Amino acid sequence: MKISDVRIRFVKKDDSKLKAVASITIDDCFVVHDIKVIEGAEGPFIAMPSRKTPDGEYKDIAHPLNTETRDTINREVLAAYEKTVAEGALAKEV
Fold first, then answer.
1. Rg of the chain over CA atoms, in angstroms?
2. What is the pLDDT of residues 33-86, one digit of tens each?
């Protein structure tokens, strides 16, 4: 599996732990939207797209089936997020 594109959209709520939402394209033929980038106690992490069930639980709509794929998605999304944050900081300095 190759992640061929990652797009980051920032969330504008200053007090929210939700920092951005990502979309990934896999092998130039399949897109997954609404991957959340959340600021945790140990730094940012991702949460796969989910929906709330009638009993209040959240269930993933799409998710990797193995650790290797999860690690790849995590690494690619967080790298794109950090790059976008850095580019935004550089743009503000100019």
1. 14
2. 999 999 999 999 999 999 999 999 999 999 999 999 999 999 999 999 999 998
What stretches of 33-66 show up as alpha helix (H) in DSSP? none
Q: Smallest Cα–Cα separation from 63: which of 79, 50, 51? A: 50
In the structure, how many helices (H) and strands (E) does the chain have?
1, 6
Which helix (H) or strand (E) is 26 found in, with range?
strand 18-26
Its pTM stands at 0.87
What burial class does residue 1 get, using C-beta atoms within 10 Å of its C-beta: 0-12 exposed, 13-18 middle, 19+ buried? exposed
CB 6 within 8 A of CB 74: no
What's the DSSP call for residue 27? T
Nearest to 70 by CA among 32, 28, 17: 32
